[in-house]
Amino acid sequence: QVQLVESGGGLVQPGGSLRLSCAASGGIFSFLLMGWYRQVPGKQRELVASINRGGSTNYADSVKGRFTISRDNSKKTVYLQMNSLKPEDTAVYYCKEEITGSWGQGTQVTVSS
Question: What is the reported pLDDT for 73?
Answer without folding.
Answer: 85
